[in-house]
Design a protein that fits this description.
The structure is a homotrimer. Chain A is an alpha/beta fold. Chain A has two domains: 88 residues, 3-Layer(aba) Sandwich (Udp-n-acetylmuramoylalanyl-d-glutamate--2,6- Diaminopimelate Ligase, Chain: A, domain 1), CATH 3.40.1390.10; 201 residues, Hexapeptide repeat proteins (UDP N-Acetylglucosamine Acyltransferase, domain 1, 3 Solenoid), CATH 2.160.10.10. In chain A, 12% of the residues lie in helices and 28% in strands. In chain A, the strands form six sheets. Chain A has an eleven-stranded mixed beta sheet. The longest helix of chain A is centred in the last third of the chain and has 16 residues. Chains A and B meet through helix 4 of A and strand 8 and helix 4 of B. Chains A, B, C: It catalyses: a UDP-3-O-[(3R)-3-hydroxyacyl]-alpha-D-glucosamine + a (3R)-hydroxyacyl-[ACP] = a UDP-2-N,3-O-bis[(3R)-3-hydroxyacyl]-alpha-D-glucosamine + holo-[ACP] + H(+). Chains A, B, C: InterPro entries: Hexapep, Hexapep_transf_CS, LpxD, Trimer_LpxA-like_sf, UDP_GlcNAc_AcTrfase_non-rep. Chains A, B, C: GO terms for molecular function: N-acyltransferase activity; UDP-3-O-[(3R)-3-hydroxyacyl]-glucosamine N-acyltransferase activity. Chains A, B, C: This is UDP-3-O-acylglucosamine N-acyltransferase.
């Protein structure tokens, strides 16, 4: 989808009187191209303004001065709310239109499986009953989808993967702007999910599509059941997540990380390579790799054990 | 379904020798009408006995004296267990009988979608592959059901809602009476779920139907993935629940409450308007609105932070 | 599936020069029969070596001396990794081949339900839309499967059970061996799940099949929604698990155990009969029956309450 900036400005009720340009998407200040719209609503990213390549930016009048001359400012006091309204313009149109997928040899597809348009399957793909593959989904060779898996539009699954029943990949990330009246306005999630080769995902997991760009699960990672992966997470190679783990948005796990059952992260943080988070642990800030952490807020497990022992002594002394 | 009280008494093996009446349902002492059966099994509700409008009440002989003359007492030492047996009489009969729904203009319904009887859809409703809508479900205009959503009988979904894949709405609440031998007898959940307008519910959530009356999710509320809403919860307008939140039965959240990821409530309590519960928090009693809480049991977040700091000092002092 | 031991050795790149035998499966040292392969990778099970009835064992050269003369040693430094490769030989072959089930009278099966081969249903079984029953699944009389339930191959469901929507039974347990390069090699889960009579399982639960033998949910147990039961768990009769409970592998719950919402166990432990684990509790070691526990690590609830009170005093004293 492409709109002129003047069309977008009109939809958002914003002033615009410049040389019009074509806009074909939305992205962050750091990632946006000259045909994309971006937004600025957090002072900590001000340093990115002079360097942005965005065609246009939703921004307050004060910070607009920091933009390069090649970037058009759309002035607003509510850039994040305007972003939300703009995101709808680029949302995928859902429909029941179905088309036979392109597929390699030796695929075994149950007759009840439903496809959107433009689906591509490799060789020897097995898709059992009740699965749904939305528009432009791709699935690599030798991958197995167990019954009742849902892959939203644009999801890319690698080779030699196993996806267990009830798992949903590519559902919308949880992102909203808020009006002054306390209403929540959906930020349409126009990114996707990429699952690399040799990944296994358990049953009834949820992997959210990115708001921009991709949520990524890297090669060789294995997820257990009932796991939540929020939008824009990046899960390193050969990482293990036990059941009921929850990763908040933009969590970056390194390679060979181990997350114990029911552990979680707070989002926008990084867990280093070869770290272990014990079961029920809650990570609230970035953690150095190669160590084992426990508790909430998560600390090194030896510290956590001392905390438990200290608590127990307090009780015993009374 | 309607039964005479004498039929019900016979089924429950209870004595009844009075003027027979017709009973068409079961409800609480406070809510039951003169054509409904109620029950009394908790002394803290004794104050409701003189005021009940119930046609009949399952009750012990001592408390029966407190009932108004217009209410018939069915005397039993095990009123809750008898309630469980009675609830089965009013349970919905499940079947595969299917009927084309009534629908407004511009609906887009995948051919694999299965309907019970008496389903009503508004205009411009989109229902993708593999969804199931049970008997007498209604879905408001412009609402989208992503693939593989299940709506049990009697579920009411409002306008402009989005329900993501794998979510189950209207499944049975978790309610059992217990025999003296330690067996659990199902209390059939004969209420329903009402989802108001502008609600978004993430993937693989579960929203239980009410035992009596309705579980309600009010206007503008947004739920993330893998969330459990138990029977008879009432979630206020514009409330936000992050992934893996769990609300126990009869929790009442106010408006614009924010529940962090993996946080939970213990049920039969109230969280005030504009409260925030931090991630992993566990609410064990009703909380005043407008504040931020954390920890388990949840306390004000500034207190929780002091507790964590105190624990850390205990460790460092050794 | 049956292989000669020489075939298996060749596949695993192991030396074998003895009297060849036929191998038809894999099991633990304690349970393997003379036609099964076993493995030894944990010194704490060395006491089982002299008594094993296994036909052959993957084992290091030192411990191999402890095996009875009737058992063949397949010498390897990486017995667990070799086990993983061997497990694939015995994995069930997935396919979309479908066959009408054998069924008793008065069954009500939605036309969208998909069956593998060799499915057997009792009388008066109700299966609603979108369910999948894999090869050799059996379902007892009077059992109800709500829409979109998935039963993997070999799952056995008893009589008078209720399985709610989106629940997945028999998905693979989470078991991997690890290469020296940090890659994870799937241990194919060749056991199954057995659900006894009078069990109710809520919506969007996941019950993993056993790696060997069966994961068992015993008579009269009731599970709420979004619960994870890992491979080889054994859940006693009349046990109750509230929503979002997670049981790690080989957990044994006694009879009439109560697990509160979001509580969990660490696996390979036993919770005694008539125990209660409070909500959010985390069980890290075996617990004596008849008591109530809370916290993480779970302790008796009265101790946990004292710990919370002590923490609160620390804060108030400052």
């Amino acid at each position: 989808m492409t709109y002129t900036l003047s069309q977008i400005s009109k939809t958002l009720n914003l002033d615009f009187n410049g040389n019009d340009i074509e806009i074909d998407g939305i992205h962050t200040l750091a990632e946006a191209s000259s045909s994309q719209l971006s937004f600025f609503n957090d002072a900590k990213y001000a340093f990115q303004l002079p360097k942005t390549k965005a065609g246009a930016v939703l921004i307050d009048s004060e910070h607009a001065k920091l933009l390069p001359v090649s970037t058009i400012a759309l002035i607003t006091d509510e850039p994040y709310l305007k972003l939300a309204y703009a995101s709808k313009l680029f949302a995928h149109t859902l429909s029941t239109v179905s088309e036979a997928p392109k597929m390699g040899s030796d695929c075994d597809i149950d007759e009840s499986v439903r496809f959107g348009s433009g689906v591509v399957l490799g060789e020897n793909v097995t898709i059992l009953a009740g699965c749904y593959l939305g528009d432009h989904v791709s699935v690599g060779s030798n991958t197995i989808l167990h019954p009742n898996v849902t892959l939203y539009h644009g999801t890319k699954i690698g080779r030699n993967c196993i996806i267990h029943s009830g798992t949903v990949i590519g559902c919308d990330g949880y992102g909203f702007a808020h009006t002054k009246q306390g209403e929540h306005v959906k930020i349409y999630q126009n990114g996707n999910v990429v699952v690399e080769d040799d990944v296994e995902i358990g049953a009834n997991c949820t992997v959210d599509r990115a708001v921009f760009g991709s949520t990524v699960i890297r090669r060789g990672t294995k997820l257990d059941n009932l796991i939540q992966i929020a939008h824009n997470c990046d899960i390193g190679e050969h990482t293990l997540c036990a059941a009921q783990v929850g990763l908040a948005g933009s969590t970056k796990l390194g390679r060979n990380v181990v997350m114990g059952g029911q552990s979680a992260t707070a989002g926008h943080l990084e867990v280093g390579d070869f770290s272990t988070i014990a079961g029920k642990g809650g990570v609230t800030k970035s953690l150095e790799g190669g160590k084992t952490y426990a508790g909430f807020p998560a600390v090194e497990i030896k510290v956590w054990r001392k905390m438990q022992a200290a608590l127990m002594r307090l009780v015993k002394n009374r």
